[in-house]
Amino acid sequence: MNIIILGAGVVGVTSAWYLAKAGHSVTVIDRQPAAALETSFANAGEVSPGYSSPWAAPGIPVKALKWLFMQHSPLIIQPTLDPAALRWISQMLRNCTAQRYAINKSRMVRIAEYSRDCLMALREETGIQYDQRTQGTLEVFRTQKQFDGIGKDVAVLKAGGVAYEILDREGCASVEPGLSSSKDKIVGGLRLPGDETGDCFMFTTELAKLAEQAGVKFLYDTGITRPITEGNRLKAIVTTKGTMEADVFVGALGSYTPKFVEHLGIDLPVYPIKGYSITVPIIDAARAPVSTVMDETHKIAMTRLGDRIRVGGMAEIAGFSKSLPAKRQATLTHSIEDLFGGAGDQSQAKFWTGLRPMTPDGTPVIGATRYQNLYLNTGHGTLGWTMACGSARVLSDIVSGNKPEIETADLAISRYAA
Ligand SMILES: Cc1cc2nc3c(=O)[nH]c(=O)nc-3n(C[C@H](O)[C@H](O)[C@H](O)COP(=O)(O)OP(=O)(O)OC[C@H]3O[C@@H](n4cnc5c(N)ncnc54)[C@H](O)[C@@H]3O)c2cc1C
C-alpha cells in the first residue's frame, strides 16, 4: 500500500520504519527541514518503562496545589480561559481515581515494556547509535517522607515484574559516584536497572537515514493544511506543496494532531504540555551522572548523553507558546548544580522547550479511526521516546492486518467514546 505518514518526530519516523519493513511504500511529510526538530529534539533522554505512570493519579490534585506555590515548581499553570486547556484539566482530574489510575497505568506499562523490547531488537538488527546507555535510572528522594512513601510504587513494580533496587544514600552514591559530594542532600533512592537512556534526536535522525535507505521518502519543509475526504475515507491531504493522495494516512503530528483531525469532526483529547531542557557539555566527568538521575522533589531528570548532560522536566499549561523564560532555565540549572555541581559548563547551556502531546489518561492513542484509511499514532505525552518503537510496531501490524503482539483494542481513540 502507499502510505503517507504525517509528522517526522520520533513517532512518525519509527512508524515509517516498521511500515516500510512490512513491505509498504511510505512517504513521511513534515513542515520542518529535517526529522525530530520539534518535541523529539531535546527531551530528557529516558527510555523508562519502569516509570510509565499516568500523571492522573490519586492524590495528584492536592499535590498539584502545593506545587503551584513552590520555588522551582515542577508544575506551572498560566492563568487561562482557553476552553481546550480547561477541558483537558477537567478530563485529567476525572482520571485521578484509584480505579482509573490502575487501568491507565496497566495500558502504559504494556506499551512501554513492549517498546523497550522493540528498541533492543531494532538496535541489534541495525547497530544504530544514539549515545545510548543501558545502566538503568535512579530516582532520588530528598526527604524521609518521600522515601517512606515509595511503597505504592514498589508494589506496582513488583506486580508488573519490573526489577528494582531500594538504595540508601551510600548506595545511591555507589551507582552514581557524581552524587558523592551531595549525598547529604538525599535520603535514598529507587533504582530501575532495566531502564535505558539515549538521545532521541540522534536516534530519530539515524533511523530516518536507515529508513531512507530502505525506500522511505521524506518530504520536508512541507506544511500539512487539511484532509480531503471521499465518503468515510481520506482521499488526499492538502499541503503547502500541493495535494497528495495515498491508500492509507497515519496521523503522527504530536501536539498538532488534534488540529488536523478537527477538520474530520474527530475530537482528539491531546493537549500541549510544555516542558523545558538544558544541555550542557561535561567539564568534569567524575562529577557527572552515569545514567539518568530523577530528582523526585523537582521532578527533573538529569541524563548523561555521551559528553553532555541533558536536564529536563517541568510541566506548564500555556497553550502552544514556545517562549523560553529565564526563570525556567534557573530551575534546571539549580537542579543539576545542586546534585552534580561543577559537572557541566553552565555558560554553554543550550536552553530548549517542547510541547508534550498529552492525553488526559496518559495513554497514547494508537490505531484505527472512524475513517477507514486514517490511523493515529500520537498522544505519547511524557513518554514518547520510551514508547515510540512499540507504538510504531503495533501500528504497522494493525495497518498491515497482522495481529499485534500485545493487546491494542484499548489504545485506540474509540476508548474515549465510552
Ligand atoms: C522537556 C521534555 C522532556 C521529555 N523527556 C522524555 C523522556 O525522558 N523520555 C520519554 O520517553 N519522553 C520524553 N518526553 C516526551 C517525548 O519527547 C514526546 O512524547 C515525543 O517526542 C513526541 O513525539 P512525536 O513524534 O509524537 O511528536 P513531535 O516530535 O512533536 O513530532 C511531530 C512532528 O509533526 C510535525 N508537524 C506538526 N504539525 C505539522 C503540520 N501542520 N504540517 C507538517 N508537519 C507538522 C512537526 O514538525 C513534528 O516534527 C519529553 C518531552 C519534553 C517536552
TrEMBL record:
* An example Gene Ontology biological process: D-alanine catabolic process
**Enzyme Commission number(s) from the entry:** 1.4.99.-
Domain FAD dependent oxidoreductase intervals: 3-397
| GO molecular-function term, one example from the UniProt record | D-amino-acid dehydrogenase activity
Please give the superkingdom of this protein's source: Bacteria
GO-annotated cellular components = cytoplasm; plasma membrane
Q: Name the coenzymes or cofactors required.
A: FAD
Chemical reaction(s) catalysed: a D-alpha-amino acid + A + H2O = a 2-oxocarboxylate + AH2 + NH4(+)
InterPro entries cross-referenced by the UniProt entry: DadA, FAD-dep_OxRdtase, FAD/NAD-bd_sf
Q: Which keywords label this protein?
A: FAD, Flavoprotein, Oxidoreductase
Q: What class of enzyme is it?
A: oxidoreductase
Q: Per UniProt, where does FAD bind?
A: 3-17
Q: What does this protein do?
A: Oxidative deamination of D-amino acids.
Q: Which family does it belong to?
A: Belongs to the DadA oxidoreductase family.
Know the name of this protein? D-amino acid dehydrogenase
| Organism field | Rhizobium skierniewicense
